[in-house]
Amino acid sequence: METLVFLAIFRVIRVDLERCHPTQPFRCPGDKTICISIQYLCDGASDCPDGYDEDLRLCTAAKRPPVEETANFLQALLANHGPNYLEKLFGNKARDALAPLGGVNKVAVALSESETLDDFGKALHLMRSDLEHLRNVFMAVETGDMSLLKSLGIRDSELADVKFFLDKLVSTGFMD
Q1: Which residue spans within the chain are E strands per DSSP?
Q2: What is the annotated signal peptide range for this record (predicted)?
């Protein structure tokens, strides 16, 4: 049941007691149901009362693959290659299915919300050596030099998937 429709600098925002309309699917956090169109997310103008639609983590995540997709990809690598497979990419703290880093979901969220590789390292408290290793992996992917990935033990049959995943992050400014 729609209770109020108002115009905020030429932007129609619906306040709905139950749910958001399909044309305005983004719901602002809070007690009231305030919904905005996706086009107004991360556009430089706050449309949610608390400015959440311009939050840096949200805006970074909007450019990245969905957290669920990232978590599923990481989980598939672990299921197919063993609990220490991601140590090749993330360093020693990635042992035991990423447990020392907080688990697959925490790593997936950090990959989604961290604006840069350095931010990712801070979010997961990576050691400088692990962060530099990961930077080298990303740089190899960015330049197309797959020899580093092969030297880490990533097989030819896995290279395309790993490269595709890492390329997605690089293309959204993760290395900036």
Answers
A1: 2-8, 11-16, 26-27, 34-36
A2: none
